[in-house]
Design goal:
alpha+beta, Thrombin, subunit H, 13 strands, single chain, Pnp Oxidase, Chain A, six-stranded antiparallel barrel
Length: 370
């Protein structure tokens, strides 16, 4: 007879132990997550507190009056609570905060308060040193306009439009103010508060812009129109590959211009005085420079251009325009006079070399997609 089969008994698994182990592990994981969340929140709080101390130091350094400081604090708390330092140290972030604040005030329908806030915030912008608009770069709103900027306006309802040439007289965060370039003009555009106008303008060393603006009020004499700030500008590039950026600090020599207007002896004329400036762009026909003072158009200029991998190039030029820009500076545009062919060729070669990468990129954008 065979031996009887004895069944093998397996050890019993204590499921309750596994459950408690799982619960303990989950509790530890949850605890670790909570600790990390608390740590991060504490770090953010400490960082914000540190940034607020920096903000107060900046306000103290800029010597802002107490009411202006309160306005800055309110602006940050409402529109940039997590980035207080960037809100008052970078133009882009300050612009965003101001835009949101003015939009909120406008939604309340109190145009008087809107206008007062616009003036107050503009003074704060100046005190913080954020009223600088880079030359040659595009703008994103009419808050970036400078006094003296020429703007052509026409009532929206007129078809075909009649264009009137105006100039920006002042800018605050709520409005930009324009008046006729010719105050003695017999014909004025028929505009009333609430009317909309077409606007077009050309920014030197940038592009053409077209936009629509709403008139809030009229004051004068002389007649000045206050248009509400516009944040939607249609930028139309007018020139392609005519000039290239060229950043160079330069000493500009001022020459007396010949009485007959000829430039045959311009190379032999002596410099009577000098001013400092910064060239912002260059072409085979002339250059643009930022200067700290205005100049009469009757004088001639002499500058030394630094062309990479070339000896400095000395050129003479006549003034085309001198226009005020932000920061109490002026943008000077000049065209060469009496320039030798070899010198122009050096400049033209440099400009063509700088243009080629952008030209290739534009051609790529224009090519059909595969």
């Amino acid at each position: 007879m065979s031996d009887p089969v004895v069944p093998i008994e397996l050890p019993q698994t204590d499921h309750s132990t596994l459950i408690w182990v799982g619960i303990g592990f989950g509790a530890l994981l949850l605890f670790a997550v909570l600790v990390e969340i608390i740590r991060r929140r504490a770090n953010r709080r400490f960082r914000r507190e540190a940034e607020w101390r920096v903000v107060e130091e900046i306000l103290e350094e800029k010597a802002l009056p107490e009411d202006a400081r309160n306005a800055v604090r309110s602006l940050i708390k409402h529109h940039a609570p997590n980035e207080p330092v960037r809100a008052i140290t970078t133009r882009q972030h300050f612009d965003r905060c101001v835009g949101e604040e003015m939009k909120a005030l406008l939604a309340q329908g109190d145009l008087k308060r809107y206008g007062e806030a616009g003036i107050r915030l503009r003074e704060i912008r100046k005190d913080l040193g954020l009223n600088y608009t880079p030359v040659g770069q595009r703008i994103y709103s009419t808050r970036e306009l400078s006094s003296g900027q020429a703007i052509w306006i026409s009532p929206v309802e007129e078809d075909p439009p009649r264009w009137f040439r105006t100039g920006v007289s002042s800018v605050d965060e709520g409005h930009f103010h324009v008046g006729l370039r010719n105050p003695k003009a017999k014909q004025l555009p028929s505009l009333n508060p609430g009317d909309e106008v077409r606007c077009r303008m050309w920014r030197q060393d940038d592009a053409r812009y077209v936009f629509t603006a709403s008139l809030d009020y009229v004051k004068g004499p002389p007649v000045t129109w206050a248009f509400r700030q516009v944040t939607e500008l249609n930028r139309i590039q007018s020139r392609s590959y005519w000039r290239v950026p060229h950043d160079q600090d330069v000493v500009i020599g001022i020459l007396n211009a010949p009485a007959d207007g000829r430039a045959t002896d311009v190379h032999f004329r002596r410099v009577v005085t000098k001013i400092r400036g910064r060239i912002t762009n260059l072409s085979a026909g002339g250059f643009a420079a930022v200067i700290q003072q205005t100049l009469p158009r009757q004088v001639l200029l002499r500058v030394s251009l630094e062309i990479p991998e070339q000896e400095p190039v000395v050129v003479e030029a006549r003034i085309v325009t001198v226009e005020p820009i932000s920061g109490e500076r002026h943008l000077l545009r000049a065209e060469y006079v009496g320039i030798e062919d070899e010198t122009r060729e050096v400049i033209a070669h440099y400009v063509m070399h700088r243009q080629q990468p952008e030209s290739d990129a534009q051609q790529a954008r224009k090519s059909p997609q595969e």
